[in-house]
Amino acid sequence: MSSLALIARFVSRSEALVAQSLLASQGIETLLPEFNVLMAELDPSMMQHGWRLMGSSEDLFRAQAILRDAQADHADDEE
Hints:
By secondary structure, the protein is α+β, with helices and mostly antiparallel strands.
């Protein structure tokens, strides 16, 4: 069994959920340890380090590449 690794950090819960959904569609299982921190939406200071998206260390580089490609595609669409 592989260990957990930090795939990415996000400023908002919604960004983290979109990234998690994208990775799930590619067969990569992840978790958001802070998912149930509902007060963070009301008091952002509670989330000083952002929303962590964690996954298997075996999937780390593939997951990061998928998110990087998605971000690049989004930037191209905005131009």
